Amino acid sequence: MTEFKHTTVLLEETVAGLNIRKDGVYVDCTLGGGGHSQLILSKLGSTGHLYSFDQDQTAIDYNQDHLAPYIANQQVTFIKANFRNLKNELNQRGIDHVDGILYDLGVSSPQFDDAQRGFSYRYDAPLDMRMDQSQELTAQAVVNEWSYNDLVRIFFRYGEEKYAKQVARRIEKVREQHPIVTTGELVEIIKEAIPAAARRTGGHPAKRVFQAIRIAVNDELGALEESLEQALDLLNDNGRISVITFQSLEDRLVKRMFKEKTEIGDLPAGLPVIPADKKPHFKLVNRKPIVPSEDELKENRRAHSAKLRIIEKLQEG
Questions:
Q1: Were 155 and a residue from 16, 164, 241, 313 both cysteine, which residue would form a disulfide, CB within 3.0 to 4.6 Å?
Q2: Quick one: which residues bind S-adenosyl-L-methionine (predicted)?
Q3: CA gap 292, 134 in Å, rounded
Q4: What order of strands is seen across the sheet that includes strand 98-104?
């Protein structure tokens, strides 16, 4: 059994945000180490059910053992799929509506800490970065085959890298001589491209470029937007979605989508009441994102950038 140890961030707050009903149907879009799934299952009765998604087979395998008692009671169904296929996968299982959906975004600690997965700039490993190891596109393909313009675009857009052009140009120069195949090689290329003064501030110099490549390889933002649209459509009245983000691009996307669903449309001045067709169908449960407590930050340094946003579908009529 592959170990999949992972300290779940904002565990209690995220599950509490779903307002679990014992007989409800819930979805954990990011099974990972099973922390959120386990807590949801502990609150469900015999007629409640949880559908847990993960595109990483390692997570599914680990939780076959970790959540074995709930599997035996037929309370949980594992689905190996990208959560962008949320609605289709649930529909195939006869589920059209659910009472709550949870997202814990980004890369899990076991994925980061497994050097061979190629997610981390701290280990020398093959350039991979695939969350779903059955997909074809890898970080090596992005680095060696994508055009200079495409590399600049993703480094700037997904990594917010100030020196996107310099890094892309350096990559282009090196790959003309030989393929770039390891994370260690890429780290050195990035260091060479970024001015010395800039390397001394703002954390590890490769952090932003690695984030950008990972997002591109897994189409993380595209998958999130598609999935959230489906999730909002799947909710029963009074159902909720809890989303934990770990970087600004994800958080801005979630914030924008939730804002669009909860704002009142443009109205003529002086209307005594809001017309029914202009009333929002959702409300924000927390106006400002929930962030980890000081105690949690002491226990888990990887929680420092986490933000939790929760939305609820309003009852019709």
A1: 164
A2: 34-36, 54, 83, 104, 111
A3: 34
A4: 76-79, 49-53, 25-28, 98-104, 235-245, 307-313, 282-284
The full set of domains in the chain, from first to last, is 11-104+220-313 (3.40.50.150), 115-218 (1.10.150.170)
State the CB neighbour count (10 A cutoff) for residue 170: 18
- Residue 227 CB: number of other CB atoms within 10 A? 20
Which residues are known binding-site members for S-adenosyl-L-methionine?
Answer: 34-36, 54, 83, 104, 111
pLDDT band, residue 107 (cuts 50/70/90): confident
* Count of helices and strands (H, E) across the chain: 15, 7
Specify the pLDDT at position 1. Answer: 43
Is 315 a residue whose pLDDT tops 80?
Answer: yes
Residues contacting 312, CB < 8 A, separation 6+: 19, 238, 239, 240, 282, 283, 284, 285
pLDDT band at 302 (very low <50, low <70, confident <90, very high): confident
Please give the average per-residue pLDDT across 267-296, as a whole number. 83
Q: What is the DSSP track for 38-89?
A: HHHHHH--TT-EEEEE-S-HHHHHHHHHHTHHHHHTT-EEEE-S-GGGHHHH
Q: Is the pLDDT reported for residue 284 higher than 70?
A: yes
Q: How confident is the model at residue 273 (pLDDT cuts 50, 70, 90)?
A: low
SS3 at position 1: coil
Strand boundaries in 74-216, DSSP class E: 76-79, 98-104
Dump pLDDT digits (tens) for 8-25: 889 999 999 999 999 999
Is 227 within 8 Å of 102 (Cβ atoms)? no
Share of the chain above pLDDT 90, in %: 78
Residues making up the binding site: 34-36, 54, 83, 104, 111
Contacts of 128 (CB under 8 A, 6+ apart): 116, 117, 118, 119, 138, 139, 140
